[in-house]
Amino acid sequence: MTQEKFCPQCGTKLPADAVFCRNCGYKFSEQPQTPQQTQPTPTPQPTSTNRWAFLNNPNFKKWATIGGVAIGLALVVIITMNVIFQKQQEAKQKAEQASIARVSRSRSSSESKVQSTERRLSKDAVDVVTNMIQDDFDLDAEATDVTVERHTGGDHYSGYASVEDDYGDSTSVDINITDVKYEKSVSVEIPDTSKLYDEFDSND
């Protein structure tokens, strides 16, 4: 397709390369220059190779190795401390359980000894109380049973004695018992004898 242009003076259509207007003689002094468009410089896009290029950096490898070792050591220390703590807790619990068991056995043994002593004193005190009633108080009665109620400290105990005569009369009196270990006997005290004298007759 042939390019054309128009005369600016008379408007005649002319070929694009015409120097003069064939109608009015107008001279085209210079050809208009078509401005060239500046193409934008493309921005380089990062490639996958450039993105991970730092991985090949010697300093990065060095610090990554150091960081990995530090993290590994920290994990080992944490795990070791946790294991030690659990072992200590288990040992503490076992020690507490063993201590409780020893105290329980000791208490049971102590209670067993006290109960055994009280039974022995109750049995031995019956004859002692009977002899006191008949010989010291001159009464026609005898002790049929002695009950030790509590340990008052050391070799001393307290309780009561059941007393009756041949006629069916009966009463009870408080007594204090001392375990005379070096003589393998018991000593009995009757703090209040008035009940005995009120209830029983004299041997005379």
Instruction: Summarize the main sheet.
Output: 4 strands, antiparallel
Class from secondary-structure proportions: alpha+beta
What is the 3D shape? rod-shaped
Overall pLDDT confidence: 84
Helix segment count? 3
Q: Stretches where pLDDT falls below 50 for ≥5 residues?
A: 32-36
Order of helices and strands: EEHHEEEEH
Number of strands: 6
Strand content: 15-25%
Report how far apart the termini are. 173 Å
Helical proportion, percent range: 40-55%
Major beta sheet, strand line-up = 3-4-5-6
Cα radius of gyration in angstroms: 62 Å
Organism: Levilactobacillus tongjiangensis
Protein name: Zinc ribbon domain-containing protein
Domain Zinc-ribbon: 6-27
Keywords: Membrane, Transmembrane, Transmembrane helix
Can you describe this structure in just a few lines?
The chain is an alpha+beta fold and 204 residues long. It contains three helices and six strands. It has helices spanning 48-51, 58-136, 194-199; strands at 4-6, 13-15, 142-153, 156-164, 170-180, 185-189.
